[in-house]
Amino acid sequence: MSNDNIAVGQAALKTVSGSQNIALGASAGASLTAASNGVFIGYQAGSNALQKVDAANSIAIGAAAYTTKNNQAVIGTGDTVETVLFGDLRGGRAGATRVFDDYGDNNIFIGCAGVADTTTFTGSGALGIGPGALANSTSGQNAIAIGIDALRNNAGNDHTAVGNEALKALNGSATVGNTAVGRRSFGLCTTGSPNTGVGDTAGYETTTGMGVNAFGYGAAWKNTVGNYIVAAGAYAGAGHGKSSRWVAIGENAMSLGTVLPDGPWDTAADTVSDNVAVGFYALFVTAGPTSVAVGAEAHRNYEGTTGRLVGVGFRAGQRLTGGGTCTFVGYQTGENENQKVDAVNSTALGANAYTTKNNQVSLGGDAVTETVLHGIVLSTVYTVGTLPAAAAGLTGARAFVSDATATVFNDVVAGGGANKVPVFCDGASWRIG
């Protein structure tokens, strides 16, 4: 034995060639050879066949305890069923566990969590678990951070972050009540609150937005400054960065026209304020504002800027790509190949109903054989001069005029008189009747 080693006990450090080791107990450190700066206390501590024989800076305490790597401390063996530690546990940044409650009140930091200099922490009720969790935080109340770099920069109150980099950038001292569960959930949020995110990358790029609720992988991913948002479903509302007051529920609902992770999203079309989309791919492209789409793929392909759409039903209004201020209600309304794709102010009601021109109302699809209207039917009163030009496409159309010169059934109507008569179009003329 040599080199400042201390051995107390039969066969303690019997084969060591390293330096500055301490062994207390019979056969303590007996397996060591080139080990250095080690401490082995207890009967046969450091004598197991698995003991690292050249361990540096390792500690084994207890009968038959042993170490397997450098810079390791072991208390007891696999047979130990309970370890009791009184008082606070402290460690440096390399420590596996640090618990303290005298720098602020009731704070717990585990696994390299918390600030390196615990004397600078003035918050209370904090729980940090994982490397970098609450690492730069010096204040704040009731923060819960679980995961690598979770709530790393926190200065606000009542925040919960569970997942690697969840709420990592949050640093506003006035922020209150953010909840982020999932990897990178609200990871870039700095001063926005209160927000809620559940899912990997939910609300990830939100910086100052408030009232943002994102549930699902990538939900509200690209939102930066938009406020009062509900996004639920994978990629729901994922591409929108600036719009506020919108609801997207369903996978890829209102996601700005892409299903790819990380985009590319058409952020130039980010004008979706006051939209509501409920259903798989509802308002998928979503260029215009103030629209409501309920049903899978409802208004899926709309790219116009006017918006003001209503679509209720499976694929309602799906063919519409431009125009605006349209209403489609019913199964596959507007799905027919004859649907005017840029219709303005048109309404289709009923399964498979569609519109072919602007300012048109269509009741029922081609399979409808009877339409029943109860009560008085009021229609626009024209003068003959304001009737649409007769054309083959208007054959069978009916109207009412207030200035006919005659009342003879089936005569071509002429204006300039005082007779009020119904008229119909035969494809070439308007006739009385």
For the residues shown, what is the average pLDDT? 89
* Total DSSP E strands: 25
Helix proportion range: under 10%
Structural class: mainly beta
Shape: rod-shaped
Explain the overall architecture.
This protein is mostly beta strands and 433 residues long. Among the domains are: 1-84; 381-432, no CATH class. 0% of the residues lie in helices and 20% in strands. The protein has no helices and 25 strands. It has strands spanning 6-8, 22-24, 39-41, 59-61, 73-75, 97-99, 108-110, 127-129, 144-146, 160-162, 179-181, 196-198, 212-215, 229-232, 246-249, 276-278, 292-294, 310-312, 327-329, 347-349, 361-363, 381-382, 398-404, 419-425, 430-432. It has a 16-stranded mixed β-sheet with strand order 6-7-8-9-10-11-12-13-14-15-16-17-18-19-20-21, with no helix packed on it. Strands 1-2-3-4-5 form a 5-stranded parallel β-sheet, with no helix packed on it. Strand 6 and strand 7 (108-110) form a beta hairpin. The N and C termini lie far apart (125 Å).
Short overview:
This protein is 0% helix and 20% strand.
Task: Compile the SSE list and pairings.
Layout: E1 6-8, E2 22-24, E3 39-41, E4 59-61, E5 73-75, E6 97-99, E7 108-110, E8 127-129, E9 144-146, E10 160-162, E11 179-181, E12 196-198, E13 212-215, E14 229-232, E15 246-249, E16 276-278, E17 292-294, E18 310-312, E19 327-329, E20 347-349, E21 361-363, E22 381-382, E23 398-404, E24 419-425, E25 430-432
